[in-house]
Amino acid sequence: MNYTINSRKRAPLWVFAFQLIQEKIRKPHIRKAVADIISKFLPTSENKTIQGEKLYSKLKEVGYCEMPNIITTEEADELRDSLTNMICFDPWKPYLGKFNIEDAPKEVHTAQIENVLAIPRLLEIANNPIALEVCERYFGCKPIIDSIQAWWSLPGHEKAEQAENLHRDNDGIRFLKYFIYLTEVTEESGPHVFVEGSHLEPKGLDIRRYEDTEVEALFGKNKFRKFTGKKGLSFIEDTYGFHKGQPAKTEKRLLLQIRYALMPTIFLNKNYINNFEKKQEFDIYSNKFLVK
């Protein structure tokens, strides 16, 4: 089945206005209180499982939960092959223009893939029932699939840049990210790192990049959790907590990221799919496509 996908370039103006407001709210307990009030006015579902409850409890406590693998090694390879053929860009160096991953300029650390939603399977992955349940428990209402992204981390750089340094995300008042490795990730390919419990602590609240030593002084080195593993490894994380993607050393890493949110964020992908004679609009609150 052939799909042509067009994405809105900008979120609605009210989303930008709320982003400016919520960025000023830094303390985790106040952010949660605001989010809890908002969630009472948003739709809920009846999805309740024992597995979802256990995963949610781990997420709530430490800031992440490892998910049951929803793709096989073979499917990870298929997705990697499809994404390898797609155009990339460096989100931190837009002046480099667009390129194929095999022809990436030497200065590129992160090669983001331009149009991942040309692969419909990625939306099916984002709609995984257990992932949606975990997010709903965390938000107190049905989650929005706010965006789907994928990028390569490329080796050959001595110094970390941008998100390769520890930081807190400030994407919205309440959000989660679902990370899925599409390549095997070792110490050589830049594993993701999260600081356990930092999503709850009012320490290091400035919006900036941090040195490891700064965050170790705040939380302790024993709180650093490094994610290495086989292709298909996946985990949901509250990235308001401190995290980073370590620079790749000798091997490339391909990562799929799905952002779930309480409310639309400035990163919202509003997608329209033309499937031959049908035009479908994505309903952010049902996480489904609706025929217009």
Automatic annotation (TrEMBL):
Domain of life the protein comes from: Bacteria
Protein name according to UniProt: Phytanoyl-CoA dioxygenase
A Pfam family recorded for this sequence: PhyH
Originating organism: Emticicia aquatilis
InterPro entries: Phytyl_CoA_dOase-like
Record-level Gene Ontology MF annotations: 2-oxoglutarate-dependent dioxygenase activity
